[in-house]
């Protein structure tokens, strides 16, 4: 008899991939049929919202991503939360002072759906520097659920990853690396409103194509063009649309890396100014010193 000690077992239990679902083509077909239901049809900044601007959404999105990463939530929690936020903003005019509260509520709902141990209202309030109260979170939870019509099982780009990668002839270790980079690209797309109206299947396919190209991984049996055509065929995506989405993802990544490097340089310069003053700025004449 084999004895198993569970004292050091992880607190959060995750389900293993189900081959019955991943190998059944009907699962992907069902997701492709319903994905448009969870995608904004038009830009709500033009026709619904009066106070909220795209940069405000981006700031809240990065904050939500940081909270989910720090709490080690599933990647799906952040994507679902952003889906709830976009669907709510596309239907209800919202004041900018309520945007962070809305983001916290969306994470609250998404974690309840996906996490074994969901985020608590008290913890989310702490992440807002206690600018909101737990009761505010609970009150808005009912409001958001009503506007979403209690339909929380939205289709997200992550739902397509395993189905798409399972149809590509890459070694297992390469597939894991591609998946890791794909998840990063998808999270980046979720923070950028320019991708909000793209179907989840297109974002997933474009992210996989961008990851393969960025990693320089080649398939012995397919050329780069043939691989792109295969990806488009798997998700029934127009080839030109897929190429455009991939290029937009790569451009967004390049811009993100550029901004990150600029911030690092600014921080380095600021640190040098505080801790290591530039000697050339020292006055050579006492009359240049302002007391």
UniProtKB/TrEMBL annotation:
Gene Ontology BP, a term: cell division
Native organism: Callorhinchus milii
PANTHER family, per database record: CYCLINS
Region (Disordered): 260-291
Protein name: G1/S-specific cyclin-D2
Function: Regulatory component of the cyclin D2-CDK4 (DC) complex that phosphorylates and inhibits members of the retinoblastoma (RB) protein family including RB1 and regulates the cell-cycle during G(1)/S transition. Phosphorylation of RB1 allows dissociation of the transcription factor E2F from the RB/E2F complex and the subsequent transcription of E2F target genes which are responsible for the progression through the G(1) phase. Hypophosphorylates RB1 in early G(1) phase. Cyclin D-CDK4 complexes are major integrators of various mitogenenic and antimitogenic signals.
Domain Cyclin C-terminal: 155-277
Matching Gene3D superfamilies: Cyclin-like
Residue ranges, compositional bias (Low complexity): 260-272
Alphabetically ordered keywords of this record: Cell cycle, Cell division, Cyclin, Cytoplasm, Membrane, Nucleus, Phosphoprotein, Ubl conjugation
Cellular localization per UniProt: Cytoplasm; Endomembrane system; Nucleus
Residue ranges of domain Cyclin-like in the record: 62-146
UniProt GO cellular component terms: cytoplasm; endomembrane system; nucleus
Family named by the database record: Belongs to the cyclin family. Cyclin D subfamily.
Pfam families reported for this sequence: Cyclin_C, Cyclin_N
């Amino acid at each position: 008899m084999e004895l198993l000690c569970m004292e050091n077992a992880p607190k959060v239990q995750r389900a293993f991939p189900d081959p019955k679902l991943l190998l059944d083509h009907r699962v992907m077909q069902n997701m492709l049929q319903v994905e448009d239901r969870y995608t904004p049809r038009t830009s709500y900044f033009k026709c619904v919202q009066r106070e909220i601007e795209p940069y405000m959404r981006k700031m809240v999105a990065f904050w939500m991503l940081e909270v989910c990463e720090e709490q080690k939530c599933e990647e799906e929690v952040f994507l679902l939360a952003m889906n709830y936020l976009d669907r709510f903003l596309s239907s209800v005019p919202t004041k900018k002072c309520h945007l962070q509260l809305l983001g916290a509520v969306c994470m609250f709902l998404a974690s309840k759906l996906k996490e074994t141990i969901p985020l608590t209202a008290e913890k989310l309030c702490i992440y807002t520097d206690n600018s909101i109260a737990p009761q505010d979170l609970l009150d808005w939870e009912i409001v958001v659920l009503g506007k979403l019509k209690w339909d929380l099982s939205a289709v997200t780009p992550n739902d397509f990853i395993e189905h798409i990668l399972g149809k590509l002839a890459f070694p297992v270790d390469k597939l894991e690396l591609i998946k890791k980079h794909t998840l990063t690209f998808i999270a980046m797309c979720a923070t950028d409103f320019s991708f909000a109206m793209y179907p989840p299947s297109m974002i997933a396919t474009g992210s996989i194509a961008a990851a393969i190209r960025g990693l320089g991984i080649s398939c012995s049996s397919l050329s780069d063009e043939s691989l792109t055509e295969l990806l488009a065929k798997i998700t029934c995506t127009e080839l030109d649309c897929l190429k455009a989405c991939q290029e937009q993802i790569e451009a967004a990544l390049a811009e993100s890396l550029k901004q990150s490097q600029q911030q690092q340089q600014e921080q380095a310069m600021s640190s040098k100014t505080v801790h290591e003053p530039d000697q050339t700025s020292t006055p050579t004449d006492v009359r240049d010193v302002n007391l």
